[in-house]
């Protein structure tokens, strides 16, 4: 990469002018002087690619910067900021930018979860920066700390609350005893959830971030398809109430682990002990809890979405990429050097809390316990819920010790066919204890 | 800086072999292969400088690496790791290393709080890296996020729990109602506090970190002498009990702020609302809460001390410095480009909670309120503590709105000379609300 002289401006192309793009443009235009001081060169916004240049924009956006010709814009830039989202045409524009020798800053989690390793390799080959702090957990610095600060350590586990919408929904259910539907409707009314909340409540958004985090944390290619994903749609008000009574809160977690079987990444609702730092992450906030061999537990907390917070993360990457161009350098690239195998979802180790409606008669617990023992699943505690209102039945809440996911699932499946079991009311994993 | 070829090993000199140095050496020796893969070159520990080579060491340390000749070691290294602490000879060895073209990684907060800006300038002049993630908040990545991730944002405030010993002491007082002396004695017994706990309980350790954080966050030279510092020695069990009753916990905070008067840095015990993310930081953990214009609130949490956690932070810096040498680059240097004035301590804006023993008679509140009004300090709430056991007297707890520190101090001073005031029992600042 050619070194910039102190005074040669760095040309910035912005692809996309939605909520995030507008804020990025505002910062680039309004903070010109302090940015130039920090970089050692002017950052010049040379154009903003939009689909339709006639759509009215925020008054902070000069209309003469708008263009529909993204390709031409990319070819005449030193740094390309991609905040349009989606796979196409974002992917081809990023590839074109890298091939043209531009550094790329992107917030595109969907693209990175599917094409990340190929793009990182391309950037490395072209000797330019590809940075994506904004793609995971919005404003929270998490990509750089994992990639650089923990580069001399070995990460063993990442537990992330990486979707603000579902955290808001679960938090409202916990605080106010709402049902899922009511809490989602509230979130929609307040702008925390979209009209179609599928990507959030089904866990797809969190799964994309899990794939990115797992790849980075374990120096291994983890694809979106490798992430076992379960959303929050089955979480009931009763589950939440039981969580509270057993000293937990329910959080949708992105879990990335390195085990003896390799690397696993999964997304599902989980019971988190109220004493765990993740338990106090409320409203639409995000947090990523990282465990490393030497550092021990670390947590990174902040706003996971929104125009200005996401733009802050984008601009951190832009300044770093720009400094690197001024210094004639590039930052550390991604490494998939460890290239660990992806472990089968059934090999994940976790704990279950199972709520069962059972016949209220002698010997029931013994026949249930037999099913656990037959599959090497050890029971930690059994509690009887006295508030069950179905005559002749009792509710048992069974917490297990850590076991293989597949053995736990088998046990639950066996319980459903027992005569003494009326209904398996809920199965939740317990994490972070 | 000359570029290293893929196979030329990077020579590492380690200065100091105490708790942290031993762990750094262990990681360098035991993780050779994965470190080499991440860096793209071997990291070779060429020697460990110690005062006395005959002192018995951890069995993980090969005795043939030990040397008493630190100068000679420094001259033959690409990266120098300084974990000996103290000003002398650390300062001259670091200066010598920089002048010899070596990158330096240090955990020396005392040195940086006093000589940081001169050393950063020297490193920049020599075009080598000077990294110090381990100097503030141990394992927690905080230096790099502030310097790089937030480089495109404007930080307005940093609130840090950056001393684990005092956090442990205050947490024990809060949880178990201990006196300060008992809690300190407990901390000493458990190894959380040193035999002479002065540097911790008087706030000196936190003040050094405040100077480093403020310099970095505000691109300004902030010296240790610029930090107003008050330790926890005056915090009583009664203060802690009152904090709990008013919905707060007492934390020793390092506070760095950018105001209209410039930059301020101060360390003192403060009442933090229990709903604030810092309130749940318990035991000897550290956390740094950062507010930035676009990112909003962020928090970084983890272990602030200890051999392995501190070594993790050191090694993150070592890997980054080594990658930079492989790539023929250097990381972003410190910038004091903003060069803001240091504001007078009296100009700091804060809130006070004042506990007073007063005559239990009519008109007392009016004469007290007059003193506040005369100094433009607005009262937010007055509570009477009914548990006062001194006949004829009442305890008033007064919380103020945000005011100038100097006006608040003047008000307290005026109260002490009022006839109706028996005693000013405690004055605590309220932060984070």
TrEMBL record, chains A, B:
Coiled-coil spans in chain: none
One Pfam family, short name: NAD_binding_3
Enzyme class: oxidoreductase
UniProt-listed PROSITE patterns: ACT (PS51671), HOMOSER_DHGENASE (PS01042)
GO biological process, one term: methionine biosynthetic process
GO MF annotation list: homoserine dehydrogenase activity; NADP binding
CC cofactor: a metal cation
E.C. numbers: 1.1.1.3
InterPro entries, per the entry: ACT-like_dom_sf, ACT_dom, Asp/hSer_DH_NAD-bd, HDH, HDH_cat, HDH_CS, NAD(P)-bd_dom_sf
Binding site for NADPH: 109
Domain of life of the organism encoding this protein: Bacteria
Residues at the active site: 209
Pathway(s) this gene product operates in, as recorded in its UniProt entry: Amino-acid biosynthesis; L-methionine biosynthesis via de novo pathway; L-homoserine from L-aspartate: step 3/3; Amino-acid biosynthesis; L-threonine biosynthesis; L-threonine from L-aspartate: step 3/5
Keywords assigned: Amino-acid biosynthesis, Methionine biosynthesis, NADP, Oxidoreductase, Sodium, Threonine biosynthesis
Protein residues bound to L-homoserine: 194
Recorded catalytic activity of this chain's protein: L-homoserine + NADP(+) = L-aspartate 4-semialdehyde + NADPH + H(+); L-homoserine + NAD(+) = L-aspartate 4-semialdehyde + NADH + H(+)
Record-listed NADP(+) binding positions: 15-22
Entry annotated with the keyword NADP: yes
Residue ranges occupied by any ACT domain in the UniProt entry: 353-432
Function: Catalyzes the conversion of L-aspartate-beta-semialdehyde (L-Asa) to L-homoserine (L-Hse), the third step in the biosynthesis of threonine and methionine from aspartate.
Family: Belongs to the homoserine dehydrogenase family.
Protein name: Homoserine dehydrogenase
UniProt organism field: Jonesia denitrificans (strain ATCC 14870 / DSM 20603 / BCRC 15368 / CIP 55.134 / JCM 11481 / NBRC 15587 / NCTC 10816 / Prevot 55134)
